[in-house]
Specification:
Structural class: mainly beta
CATH topology of one domain: Methylamine Dehydrogenase, Chain H
Number of helices: 1
Strand content: over 45%
Distance between the termini: 47 Å
Shape: globular
CATH class of one domain: Mainly Beta
Radius of gyration: 21 Å
Length: about 325
């Protein structure tokens, strides 16, 4: 009788344990280095030597990565023009002969900054009708550079960067419902995170005539989107991580959803792992080797309010209210 009761107790313990969120037996990932920034690290982009950070009210911060993973602040543009507002996102082309970064600066429009001298970034111009500019993303096609400029209450402009640095709008503004929060480009396709209206998808095969091909009504508030076709990963605010799959008929099927502490603000996938910047929850990491069955791996905390995240070399860089952190596998 005693052995039978012991066996029943063992089964109950195992059953209870299975109901808990899955955790790693060891900490697979850890914070390696960090650097403080003058403002909130809202957006990140890196080349082989420098990290460029959209630092909210502090404008643009340049961080030296030449001795990576060590990092050090080397320069700042603090918003000298009177029209500057709040820096949400930043882009720099990898093959960049112009030495420029493009800063989504809210009501301050799109800022173009010369970083040929990283210790002294210099304002060049702004404008392009991009009030409430919340995101900017660049891609190159046939040796021509293009920017996707997201205006919160208008939509997205597809913009060609001329060899002299001039910005030339291609086609009309891409109108989307709701507020335009984030843009991403992959395989001639534009993905737009539209808050409560989910994700809108456009075929950009013809730059001058984008064609809407799908929409994805996420359960939360889509803030940022990352695409690894046919899968789409959405930082869905209170909706957590949402994963969809493009179907042959261009519809998008919801394949998985994973909760996170805090709110999902940014998302990126690297080497089979999905990283979600979840505000006060830090960074949530999932194994997405099988995207329809994401497996929770680890929550990285102690870095403050996680706002943005990008892959870099063998790690990810996380922007928070305190600064920038590197997270890599142990």
């Amino acid at each position: 009788m005693r052995n039978k009761l012991a066996f029943i107790a063992f089964i109950l313990i195992i059953g209870a344990a299975c109901k808990k969120p899955p955790t790693s037996p060891t900490q697979l990932f850890s914070v390696k280095t960090e650097v403080s920034t003058a403002g909130y690290a809202e957006g990140l982009v890196a080349d082989s030597v420098y990290l460029y950070v959209a630092t909210g009210e502090a404008g643009l911060t340049v961080i030296d990565l030449s001795d990576f993973p060590s990092m050090s602040v080397v320069g700042r543009w603090d918003g000298a023009p009177p029209s500057d507002d709040y820096s949400y996102a930043v882009h720099k082309f990898e093959d960049d002969t112009l030495n420029r970064v493009y800063l989504a600066n809210g009501d301050g429009n799109l800022k173009v900054i010369d970083v040929s001298d990283p210790e002294n970034p210099t304002f060049l111009t702004d404008g392009f009708w991009a009030h409430n500019c919340e995101d900017v993303y660049g891609f190159t096609r046939a040796d021509t550079q293009f920017l996707l400029i997201a205006r919160r209450d208008w939509g997205v402009a597809v913009t060609q960067v001329g060899v002299d640095g001039s910005l030339i709008q291609r086609g009309a503004w891409i109108s989307v419902p709701g507020y335009t929060r984030g843009v991403f480009y992959a395989d001639s396709t534009l993905f737009v995170a539209n808050g409560q209206d989910g994700v809108q998808v456009f075929d950009l095969t013809n730059i001058d005539n984008p064609v809407k091909i799908a929409e994805f009504d996420t359960p939360g508030n889509a803030r940022k989107v990352f695409a690894d076709p046919p899968f789409i990963y959405v930082a869905d605010w209170h909706g957590g991580l949402v994963i969809g799959e493009m179907q042959p008929d261009s519809t998008i099927r919801l394949v998985a959803k994973a909760d996170v502490d805090g709110v999902a603000k940014d998302v990126v996938v690297k080497d089979g792992f999905c990283y979600v910047a979840s505000g006060n929850g830090g960074v949530f990491i999932f194994d997405v080797s099988h995207p329809d069955e994401p497996v929770f791996v680890q929550q990285v905390t102690g870095i403050g309010n996680a706002l943005s995240i990008i892959p870099y070399r063998d790690c990810v860089l996380v922007g928070t209210r305190y600064g920038v952190y590197t997270i890599s596998m142990n």
